[in-house]
Structure formats: C-alpha cells, structure tokens
Amino acid sequence: MACLFCKIRDREIPGDFVHETDQLFVLRDIQPVAPSHLLIIPRLHVATINDLTPEHTTLVGDMVLMAQAMAAREGLTDSGYRLVMNCLAEAGQSVYHLHLHVLGGRVMRWPPG
C-alpha cells in the first residue's frame, strides 16, 4: 500500500500545504487536536523513528528548525507550543512516514496520553 504522505507529496491526493522546501513540506493536520496543528514531513520516506540512522541527523535537525519557524509563523512563540513525534501504533503513529506535529494555540496538559 502506498504511503499517504508520499501521495500528498507527489500531489496524487490533495493536502493543505503551508510551506515547502527541497527537503520538507508542511501541512495542516486534517484532524487537528489544537487550534494550530501542523505536520512537518520530510520528502524522503522514512517509516518510523526506529528507521532513522546517523545519516538522518541533519534531516531531523531541519525538521525541528522548520517547526520553530512554523510556530513563529502561527504566532505561537510567546504563548508556547508542543512538538510531538509518535513511533508505532501504541504511541499513536497512524501514518508510517516520519513526521513532526507542531501543536499550539491552547493550554497543553501534562502528562499527555
């Protein structure tokens, strides 16, 4: 079965694109859990955090820096925001293509889950 995010990346199915670079694209989540809920997604298909290797170090750093920039764009840097990466089904991963959630615009509780 083809990857949902790869299909969106390739414009085979629509996505609510917010920003794009050569390495990453940013979408609004279709089932947001906060007023601001963005997904930072690498163009390179990596299924899970478990599949990362040292060669992906720059990619993961770029994802976090993009999250920071998108949080600023969404006006979240003064009030705060949360970054989340889920790994496998029991942690809540539903699309097996690495992605980073940027959540903000409401008070976040702890512990999550």
Our measurement of the CA-to-CA distance between the termini, rounded to an integer number of angstroms, reads 29 Å
CATH architecture: 2-Layer Sandwich
For this structure, the CATH topology is HIT family, subunit A
Count of beta strands: 5
The CATH fourth-level homologous superfamily? HIT-like
Instruction: Please give the share of residues in helix.
Output: 10-25%
> How much strand content do the residues show?
15-25%
Shape: globular
Q: SS-based structural class?
A: alpha+beta
Q: Please give the domain count.
A: 1
Strand order of the largest sheet: 1-2-3-5-4
Briefly summarize what is shown:
It is built from 2 helices and 5 strands. With 113 residues, the protein is of the alpha+beta class.
Strand and helix layout:
Blueprint: H1 4-9, E1 17-20, E2 24-28, E3 36-42, H2 57-73, E4 81-84, E5 100-104
Antiparallel strand pairs: 1-2, 2-3, 3-5, 4-5
Tell me what the structure shows.
This protein has a single domain, classed as HIT family, subunit A (2-Layer Sandwich), CATH 3.30.428.10. It is α+β, with helices and mostly antiparallel strands. It has helices at about 5-10, 55-75, and strands at about 15-20, 25-30, 35-40, 80-85, 100-105. The chain is globular, with a radius of gyration of 14 Å. Strands 1-2-3-5-4 form a 5-stranded antiparallel sheet, covered by helices on one side. The mean pLDDT is about 95.
